[in-house]
Amino acid sequence: MNIRNSAKAIIIQDHQLLAIKKRDKDGYYFILPGGGQEHGENLHQTLQRECIEEINTTVEIANLLFNREYIGKNHEHFEFDGNIHQLEYMFLCTSEPPPPNLRFERGFY
């Protein structure tokens, strides 16, 4: 099993966090825009590519806020995530203009 790097965007606008709403057999959940680093990319390049792919916009990347180590076998989704070991880098980002066709929502469901 390899350890993978991932870059994530924390985009806050009008006191609301932009998150991608997904659904699985257990219901809805939210993830930050971003994803896995490819060979030859630095983390900023990864984050730009992933934001274009996932939210259809470029971002201005600011400070690294925190890191998270995710070991899938230790979490509730271990049935399909059990072989994942990932280091996630969370960057504060801005997007001007806001991502098209996306809405910021208050609260979680």
UniProtKB/TrEMBL annotation:
Pfam families: NUDIX. SUPFAM superfamilies: Nudix. Residues 1-109 form the Nudix hydrolase domain. InterPro entries: NUDIX_hydrolase-like_dom_sf, NUDIX_hydrolase_dom. This is NUDIX domain-containing protein. It comes from Oceanobacillus jeddahense.
